[in-house]
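Researcher: Quick test of sequence recovery. Tokens follow.
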């Protein structure tokens, strides 16, 4: 049993070695992975690593600039901004990963079905996709959240439903390309069913695009959640977007730290996801990446 497990692990390592080798060459992606790992770890351990309670009011230190006791300063109620940034990461990561995974799953499923079966089903699904692509996402997102309530579940579901069309069109195009290859036609001629062809051949060939889009979709979900919080529909009282909205009345008077640190956290997190997606794309498509490098 141990020998069989060891054999499987060694085969997996050999098979994925080119991917990891190319990924490790992407220095920006590696740095982004480390940063995102730190953000996730601090979010999961927020109760232990944050120096203060994010809701703790200190009237003696209202609008205090960054110093040793409060490295990120305090807000207009004397609450520690570093603690609020750390705890706000929990909301950001929850919404980002959940909505990113849901929109990737929806786009992958619709694109795969549309590209593989084609015909009238493809026509119907692509018309639906085009309708969603013409909808202005942010205004509709704000409208739906305002109608159905500003809970985290509603925010995640609405972002997911509105953000899948781009991936669906990419997956459809790749599925149609894979289906026309000779080895797929040979499988069908030998009597392989739809399930075998889809899960054994088509899906593995388009998984790379879904993985790359997952990183991009997560960044988009983070920006969308921050926008919802910033515009006053925050489902929570501690988040990066909500803290930015609170800082609007104070940064002009000189309290720049109230805007800078939550905004910089959003910027760095989204940038890291973009760099990770770029690194994954280079690792999954090494030939194309080298061509652009040259």
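Model:
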């Amino acid at each position: 049993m141990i020998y069989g497990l060891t054999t499987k692990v060694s085969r997996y390592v050999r098979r994925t070695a080119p991917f990891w080798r190319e990924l490790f060459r992407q220095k920006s992606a590696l740095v982004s992975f480390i940063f995102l790992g730190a953000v996730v770890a601090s979010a999961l351990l927020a109760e232990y690593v944050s120096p203060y309670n994010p809701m703790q009011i200190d009237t003696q230190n209202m609008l205090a600039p960054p110093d040793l006791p409060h490295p990120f300063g305090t807000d207009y109620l004397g609450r520690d901004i570093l603690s609020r940034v750390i705890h706000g990461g929990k909301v950001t990561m929850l919404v980002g990963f959940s909505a990113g995974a849901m929109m990737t799953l929806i786009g992958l499923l619709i694109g795969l079905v549309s590209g593989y079966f084609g015909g009238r089903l493809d026509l119907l699904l692509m018309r639906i996709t085009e309708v969603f692509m013409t909808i202005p996402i942010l205004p509709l997102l704000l409208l739906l959240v305002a109608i159905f309530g500003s809970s985290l579940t509603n925010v995640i579901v609405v972002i997911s439903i509105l953000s899948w069309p781009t991936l669906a069109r990419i997956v459809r195009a790749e599925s149609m390309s894979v289906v026309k290859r000779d080895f797929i036609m040979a499988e069908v001629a030998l009597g392989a069913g739809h399930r075998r062809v889809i899960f054994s051949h088509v899906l593995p060939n388009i998984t790379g695009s879904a993985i790359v889009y997952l990183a991009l979709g997560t960044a988009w979900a983070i920006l969308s959640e921050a926008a919802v919080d910033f515009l006053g529909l925050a489902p929570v009282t501690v988040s990066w977007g909500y803290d930015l909205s609170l800082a609007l009345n104070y940064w002009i008077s000189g309290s720049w730290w109230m805007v800078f640190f939550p905004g910089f956290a959003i910027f760095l997190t989204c940038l890291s996801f973009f760099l990770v997606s770029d690194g994954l794309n280079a690792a999954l498509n090494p030939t194309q990446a080298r061509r652009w490098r040259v």
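The chain has a mean pLDDT of 82.
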